[in-house]
């Protein structure tokens, strides 16, 4: 079940949204409080950060050079629309692939307007309307991977539980728009990352507390030989691993939902290398960005209000600077656009 872990004590300096840790600084990029910000994507071409708000049904674009944050409603005629991910389509200006409700779709947006075009559905992942898309990412070949998520309910103890355990899947969407189930029967599929050699795919099974690794065939997108890289529960870590990024040293950065932090994990040894504390209790995902790709952007949520009462820090998007490894800045990779769909 989802349970709130130990209190994380942070020293707040200069403002209510800036935090100093051991060698790093965490600062909110804006005052906006999103319901369920997720799927951050750094666009190297425009030097902009994109992300979605699942429950809010919006997409956002943040430009660090101007500090402008623009948010647009997806399908504004339908207040119940959810949007889980936004990724640019390669070579197509202002066109994006999104997860909308239980579908994968495309839309156009100039990154400034308050609404997008009406989503054009590519494929329905399920006919069960209680299941919706969760998060997604392009693989090294520019193919789109996306997971689904069932609804939640409260158990007898008042804790949030997935209503359909093991009812979600991780899909690969082909260039023809066909959805292929690659990882079946998952409760909450979340973070994805690929190593620099394009031989390994890392995957987070949030509800099971595990980061998994698969052998990965870059040509076909086939995965095999599943192994556990890291188990947060077995390591007595409060919270649930969620969205994920990989740095240029091959180490994983994993947002810890209900843990108020981001973990740096060595996937080869399975060791926890670093914990970066975030003011929000519900970090959802992370990605590297900035001109030198040395800023870790972290999204957060404010959705489980009975379990983790929201504060002024919940639902913000944060920028973490000053991260170092062996005395050198930690750097990552920009987002990959989708080649075709």
From TrEMBL:
Pfam families documented for this protein: SGL
Residues annotated as signal peptide: 1-21
Listed name of the protein: Regucalcin-like protein
Chain ranges of the SMP-30/Gluconolactonase/LRE-like region domain: 36-302
Molecular function, one GO term: calcium ion binding
Keywords: Signal
Family membership: Belongs to the SMP-30/CGR1 family.
Record-linked InterPro entries: 6-blade_b-propeller_TolB-like (IPR011042), SGL (IPR013658), SMP-30 (IPR005511)
Binding site for substrate: 132, 155
GO biological process, one term: L-ascorbic acid biosynthetic process
Keyword Cytoplasm applies: no
Transmembrane portions of the chain: none
Organism expressing this protein natively: Nilaparvata lugens
């Amino acid at each position: 079940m989802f349970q709130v872990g130990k209190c994380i004590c942070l020293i707040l300096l200069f403002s209510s949204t800036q935090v100093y840790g051991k060698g790093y600084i965490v600062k909110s990029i804006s005052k906006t409080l999103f319901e369920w910000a997720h799927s951050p994507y750094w666009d190297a071409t425009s030097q902009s950060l994109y992300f979605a708000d699942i429950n809010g049904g919006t997409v956002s674009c943040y430009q660090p050079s101007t500090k402008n944050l623009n948010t647009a409603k997806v399908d504004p005629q339908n207040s119940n629309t959810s949007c889980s991910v936004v990724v640019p389509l390669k070579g197509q200006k202002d066109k994006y692939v999104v997860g909308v409700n239980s579908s994968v779709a495309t839309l156009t947006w100039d990154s400034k307007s308050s609404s997008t075009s009406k989503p054009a559905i590519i494929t329905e992942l399920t006919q069960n309307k209680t299941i919706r898309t969760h998060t997604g990412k392009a693989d090294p070949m520019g193919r789109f991977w996306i997971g689904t998520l069932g609804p939640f309910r409260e158990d007898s103890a008042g804790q949030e539980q997935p209503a359909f355990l093991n009812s979600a899947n991780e899909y690969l969407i082909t260039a023809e728009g066909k959805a292929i189930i690659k990882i079946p029967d998952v409760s909450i599929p979340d973070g994805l990352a690929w190593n620099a050699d394009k031989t390994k795919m890392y995957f987070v099974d949030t509800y099971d507390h595990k980061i998994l690794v698969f052998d990965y065939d870059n040509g076909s997108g086939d995965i095999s030989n599943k192994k556990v890289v890291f188990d947060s529960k077995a390591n007595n870590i409060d919270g649930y691993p969620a969205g994920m990024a990989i740095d240029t040293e091959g180490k994983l950065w994993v947002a810890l939902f209900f843990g108020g932090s981001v973990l740096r994990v060595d996937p080869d040894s399975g060791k926890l290398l670093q914990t970066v504390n975030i003011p929000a209790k519900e970090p959802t995902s992370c990605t590297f960005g900035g001109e030198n790709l040395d800023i870790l952007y972290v999204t957060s949520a404010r959705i489980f209000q009975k379990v983790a009462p929201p504060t002024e820090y919940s639902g913000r998007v944060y920028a973490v600077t000053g991260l170092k490894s062996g005395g050198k800045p930690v750097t990552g990779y920009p987002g990959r656009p989708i080649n075709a769909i």
